Amino acid sequence: MTAVVRPAGRGQVHTAPKTRTDAKPRFVATTRPALGAMGALTIFGFFVALLAMASLHSVLVNGQFEFDSLHDRLEYGQERSQVLREEVARLESPSRILAAATGRLGMMPPPNRLYLPSVVPGDPLRPLPPPAANPFSLRVR
Amino acid sequence: MSTGPEATTGTGRGSSRDLLRRDAQIRLKRRVLLVGFIFAVLAGLLGWRLVQLQIMEPDRYLERGLAQRIRTVALPAVRGAIVDRNGVDLALSVPRNSVVANPSLIADPTAAAMALTGILNTDIEVLESRLSSDRSFVYLERQVEDEIAEMAMALDLSGIYTQPERARLRPGDGSALALLGRTDIDNNGISGLELVFDDLLSGTDGEMIVEAGLGGSTIPGGEYRVEAADQGRTLVLTIDRALQFEAERLLAEGVTAAGGKGGVLVAMSPTTGEVLASATVSRGDDGIVRPSTEHRVATWTFEPGSIMKPLTMSAVLETGTAAVDTTRDVPSSVFVHDADFTDSFPHGTEEWSVADILRQSSNVGTILWAQDLGEEALYRQLLDFGLGSATELGFPGEANGILLPVGKWSGTSLPTIAIGQGVSASPIQMITAFSTLANNGLRPIPTLVRGSLDDEGVFAPLGVGEQVEVIPAGIARSVVEMMEAVVSDGTGKRGQVPGYRVAGKTGTAWKPLDKGGYGEDKDEIRYVASFAGFLPAEAPEIVILVVVDEPARSTYSGGRAAAPIFADYAQFAVRQLRIPSEFERTGLDQVGRVMATTPAREMSILAAEEAALSGIG
Question: What ipTM does the predicted assembly reach?
Fold first, then answer.
């Protein structure tokens, strides 16, 4: 069994040869260039799509990693702020200041106290600003 | 391979080859069939397994798969902080690590215990016992400092870990401890305000459901649900940290100086009933006076003694029994029922007005007017001032005090109760009564809490009840004027505060003994010295009650033991609260002079302005 493949020009119409009784039948496989190109394009497109999906997945994984990392940082920030808040309150506490003054600094209570008048020209203290939204709240995410 | 027709028609040697070939073909066919059959059986088995997995019991493997990937992470609610009226932290929860162990992974518990005992504050025997336990989890020490946890982990012992927790800390050490209360190691309130507002402070735990891979990293696009924890609310108290600390310090100094067994100092805003400071001190076994862990301002009762007299006199004035300047003869003693009542100082029969009687704290004069007033009127008045029943403070273990109904009074009840004996009241009841006088006769609702903040910082005020009119404003002003004379020219001179008009009353009560009665001889008698007052008398902004329990005999009176503490504390308080003196108040009229303020005061002013505007609207 033999097969003859005839190359065909682009856009050429291929027809099977007329049957001749004296000649052995020949199987002629023909390819259609447009279909081939489409097939090639399809395969190419398929692989491009795969690549794009892989890239997008990579971006997604990176984004998720970054999100996890931010979440961890947020938790750490929240905990750290609590620790620092406690430290500030402890450092500002009258008992610590008194202990430091009379202990480390060697200060003595005065025999008499002179208080400055509480009426001053111009009030240096302003009221507290309105409370801002908690930047660490999980509810706002 | 050619398949010509001649290949199948041979004879002779060719025929035997054909036979062989046919046999080979048959064998090949059988083999092919066999292999095909095997593959078919295998495919059938696989197919059957697929049917089993996908159709017959899909949930089992689905669940196993989910269990491998889905993680539920608990999001514990953080217990809310407790802050003072200016937003200063008094108690808050901070992250801490606990050192824990899995004893099954520890090869040599003794060696591990020896290594850890130098770092942890736990006995080596206890450590060894815990590390030898059969359990797979034991605490070695909970909520340790970060440095200690790091040192423990630096030993690199197998089976020793750290576990994050939250510790409840009070940055001010023992200040206001009796008021704030405590939590247990698991952050549940067990006393004080931590217990009262436990639900509000605790919040509700949340959880995060996440689909994670092998290394614990989140699978993108997978399951991810967060139910955020409802964080505990921040409790905003009415007390001022500086006022609280100074109250404890000055009270401890004063009680030490007076040789007392303990003492109480409480300060209140008369217009709002907000408690600004609430201190209790007691003398320890070592003889040192220090802040107590019991909030005796609410839980302790005492016979108030002469600080009851302004309340008695307010009833005398209100019922029209007498006016401020009504006079009568007051002897040095009076016999009622079966007892003699005398004044604390000798005098002949004097013609004293009601104001004079109060200024000199005359027992006899007060009893005489109380007899004219009558039992029922006195009892009603004291009830209206809030005696005999717990206040609205809502503190655990708050005392009711004792004010027996008139039907149970004996023949000496009227004279004794009129001068503050035979009746008991808690410090919070007495300061509420004095706040009523300072607040033009309106009894404020005592409170320790202004409100709460959520985790977004939104403030929700605590609802307080309506103020009740106990006496008309005019009567209250008359009593205040009489009390001013007590401080300016009476028994309470040591309660004077430079620059301010002060109204107050001293009290020196006999303390009932455990065996009953007040004691017969001088060595047996115990006293409770007190001073209740407020300033500025013309527009009171702070009411202060000081009680010294069992002062030494040399300084047993309220004027000597308690009034100086009042004066020292009041001088500090007026500065802290920016209450102007008379001179400073005059100066406010000048252009360009303004009142220095505090954040809390500014908020109160704004709230008052808003209330006024809404009232107009």
Answer: 0.73
